[in-house]
Specification:
By secondary structure, the protein is α/β, with parallel strands linked by helices. The chain has 13 helices and 6 strands.
């Protein structure tokens, strides 16, 4: 049999890692872009359709009530990749948040600073329709169906903004450290602590509600397999969140999470962010446990140039 690629002859569209539009934007150094809609191929819409229809019943069962209310108020079309301008038309009046299209990785300080400004850096590409399950990069399904519905909730939105403000506190604090080696050491540790906090709350958080444990983390909300695993699998460790644990706990991104943390409410989440900032000011985040995640050069520079 002749060997033929499944994608041969199919437009690259705006598929993850294969989109010429994104490659051009990156080549010309554009991080903040617009979302062109015409390039989306039928295969791209098919990927959205399949992802959405598989997850919808699982959201009903596993997602927290704020997400369910949020996704309804965004009026997403289950059949077609969303237009960010449309999403923002519904989102913005609720909390002031908006989805802001980006060409790829946003260095840590810039990412957090966007949150402070109620902007959410949003990927516009979508995974291949024959690779729905695992994808190391974010895509528009993860960002719009996983994150953005949470931004419709006032309390959650305030916690995110507060988290964004912590990045400014961090930049101010380290700019006062004269010795360069100490400055880089402390900054690396603070960024690690912030990334871990974000991971164990915004990306993989669980919340206790009147109907038991529910999911509010976007990494779980956008994963067909893991949303159920997070709640049902007996081997997953689920504990009430303790800040001292979360900021010192490494994580790996290439398998289902073995350890998840529970908050009581988004007011609780907000108070944890407050605490995080207090600890930062007290120097308690200057030496968190080594390990994942890696802090790269671009992350460090983004803070040092802030
Ligand atoms: Fe995410």
């Amino acid at each position: 049999m002749p060997e033929t690629s499944v994608l041969e002859g199919i437009q690259p569209g705006l598929t993850t890692t294969q989109a010429p539009f994104i490659e051009q934007a990156k080549a010309s150094g554009q991080l903040y872009i617009h979302q062109p809609y015409e390039p989306y191929s039928e295969e791209n819409h098919e990927a959205w359709r399949r992802l959405y229809s598989r997850l919808a019943p699982r959201w009903e069962r596993y997602a927290n009530e704020h997400f369910l209310k949020g996704i309804e108020s965004l009026c997403l079309d289950p059949q077609r990749v969303p237009r960010l301008t449309e999403v923002n038309r519904f989102l913005n009046p609720l909390t002031g948040f908006q989805a802001k299209p980006v060409s790829g990785y946003v260095p840590a300080f810039l990412f957090f600073d966007c949150l402070r400004n109620r902007e959410f850096p949003t990927t516009i590409t979508i995974r291949r329709s024959d690779h729905l399950d695992y994808l190391p990069e974010p895509d528009i399904f993860h960002d719009i169906a996983g994150h953005v519905p949470m931004h419709t909730d006032k309390n959650f939105a305030e916690a995110l903004v507060r988290f964004g403000e912590c990045a400014h506190t961090a930049a101010d604090l380290v700019s006062g450290i004269r010795d360069e080696e100490t400055r880089i050491h402390c900054l690396t540790s603070i960024i690690k602590a912030m990334a871990r906090f974000f991971w164990f709350t915004v990306e993989f958080g669980l919340m206790r509600g009147k109907d038991g444990l529910k999911v509010y983390g976007s990494g779980l909300l956008s994963s067909y397999g893991e949303i159920a695993h997070a709640i049902d699998a007996p081997e997953v460790q689920r504990y009430p969140i303790q800040l001292e644990w979360a900021v010192n706990q490494g994580f790996e991104i290439d398998h289902y999470q073995p350890l998840l943390f529970i908050v009581d409410s988004f007011d609780h989440l907000f108070s944890l962010v407050d605490q995080l900032e207090k600890w930062m000011r007290a120097g308690k985040l200057n030496n968190v446990a080594p390990g994942e995640p890696d802090v790269n050069e671009a992350d460090l520079k983004s803070f040092l140039r802030a």
